[in-house]
Amino acid sequence: MSTITVTPLGFAAGAQVTGIDLSKPLSELQQRQINKAWLEHIVLVFPGQELTPAQQIAFTGSFGTLDQHGSQAPTTLHPEHREILVLSNKVVNGKKSGTYNSGRNWHTDLSYTTRPAKGAVIHCKEKPPVGGDTMWANLYLALETLSPTIRKLLDGLEAVHDVTLVQGIELRAPEVVAEMKKRTPPVVHPVVRTHPETGRKSLLVNQRIRRFVGMSDEESQSLLAMLNTHATSPEFVYRHRWSLGDVVMWDNRCSCHVALGDFDQTKPRVMFRCSLEGEVESGRLTNDIGGTDRQTMLQAVAAVS
Ligand SMILES: O=C(O)CCC(=O)C(=O)O
Ligand SMILES: [Fe+2]
User: Fold this and answer.
1) CB 3.0 to 4.6 Å from 10: which of 101, 170, 238, 301, for a disulfide?
2) How far away, in angstroms, is 305 Cα from ligand 2 center?
3) Looking at the annotation, which residues are catalytic?
4) Which atom of ligand 1 is least distant from the CA of 134?
5) What is the domain-level CATH number for residue 257?
6) 293: pLDDT confidence band, cut at 50, 70 and 90?
7) With contact defined as beta carbons under 8 Å apart, do 130 and 243 qualify?
8) How far is the centre of ligand 2, averaged over its atoms, from the C-alpha of 156 (Å)?
9) Do residues 144 and 266 touch, judged by C-beta distance below 8 A?
């Protein structure tokens, strides 16, 4: 039986996988080879594929439990397959799609829920002539390259993730936004997490974090800015230029990503995405999203002195 060929595309992440037709059921060997490459390279690119929704669902299902997209507005799902989220900037019946500007800041899918996604599989259906790239950052490397002093500070630290920090959420249809807020109140996750398969630790930070637990807002914002800048340094990033038919599969347990708006918005960009449910509930809901600002702390000091 022929084996797949894995060719690295970047130092921190990304590899191209050829020698396989994803429309056919995977053999056990192929499944194992792909999983091994996925764990090693975080982002796998399968060029020149042509998958029906059912075939994309079947391929994704070889790597875990398909997300039924309960945290997404129903209007953003494929009409016949709720396992497929349609990422589209097309205007239909005079209305912009609820996903027309999805993923525009650095994020880890569903970190604003208690169970962030395991991974996802995107199939490129339509693309603008230039731009509309997607970037992924390797969050193992991000953690491993921090100084021991900062790592000590991060051990045991938790962060509040908040769906309202999704970039451009206020520009989406009000009913879609209301639905997202209702479905996903803020949640707390540890800043350092352990990958369930590799056992390696990574840094769970991104631009959808409101604050760190137990810190003032000023402390949170400074630390967050430092960590986000560090985590998304070019050294840790793979940038993908889409071609029609690409299937890209990423490991969400050790990475964050951003979909760039660097393209002519009058040109269609359409991707079908299947997502894998996270293996574990790693977060907890919180009602406490307000931090303490410096002014309040000064007043508290003044009151006792
Ligand atoms: O459109 C893209 O390239 C990715 C959007 C995104 O963040 C996602 O599907 O999770
Ligand atoms: Fe995403």
Assistant:
1) 238
2) 49
3) 107, 109, 257, 273
4) 3
5) 3.60.130.10
6) low
7) no
8) 26
9) no
